[in-house]
Amino acid sequence: MKIAIVGYGRMWKFVEEYSKKRWHEVAIIINPSLWTKKEDLLNLSFDVIIDFSIPQVALENMRFYAKNNFKVIMWTTGWYEDLDEIKNLFTRSNWALLWAWNFSIWVHLFWKMIENASKIINKFEDYDVFWHEFHHNKKADSPSGTATKTANILLENIDRKTSIITEELSHRAIKPEELHFSSTRWWYIPGIHQVYFDSIFDTIKIEHSARTREWFALWSVVCAEWLNKKTWYFEIDDFIKEII
Questions:
Q1: Strand residues in 8-147 grouped as ranges (E)
Q2: Rounded distance between C-alpha atoms, residue 12 and residue 29, angstroms
């Protein structure tokens, strides 16, 4: 394939590396430091865009992609309040979008574990549940997309939890029905996600700890290979169902 990369930070370099390792050609890299802009895509021939940009431009980028019938792997997080608009744009588009909370296949296995564990914990009211995540200090969104997805899984499967709290509780205690999700942004940590089920007798912890962000780049390229044969709107679960 010919891949166009829209990237900020270090991730576009990883995407370029793994695209070439899987025998694809990088048609262009859209990055302000390279003096390229998304409008340059209109003058090129390529198969799929992989977008590792930033939340502030992600929505504008996707509107541009849909208007011009591009196939897009959208990795950027932090734009989900506009998901309905994007879904509508790409279900009317001649091309395709695949987006994900997280492009690490191992995080999706982690979510399967959380789903199964929360269904069990739902039967045992002695257990409370909470979440904490660590990420590098350049990450723009807090909580992360991975955290938001995890929170939704827990809410769907634990009946006694009905709402999510992500802010500091400095003037009151947390309510029993609230699910506390806290975040730390610190130095170079690629990502650590922890779910705790806690009772007076014991604590159960399920943790996913990423060693490198390169995995995200690799799986975004694998997803691009999958999307290249399709049109329409897809979420990462559509891809996962075919490989698990």
A1: 25-30, 48-52, 71-74, 96-99, 128-135
A2: 8
Q: What does pTM read for this prediction?
A: 0.75
Query: Which of 24, 108, 139, 161 is an active site residue?
Result: 139
Residue 206 scores a pLDDT above 80: yes
pLDDT at 163: 96
* Domains of the chain, earliest start first: 2-99+214-243 (3.40.50.720), 105-210 (3.30.360.10)
- The question of whether 208 is a catalytic residue gets the answer no
Residue with token string 């995407």 = 15
pLDDT at 29 (0 to 100)? 95
139 has catalytic annotation: yes
Name which of 216, 215, 242 is nearest 230 in CA terms. Answer: 242
Both structure tokens of 130: 């909470």
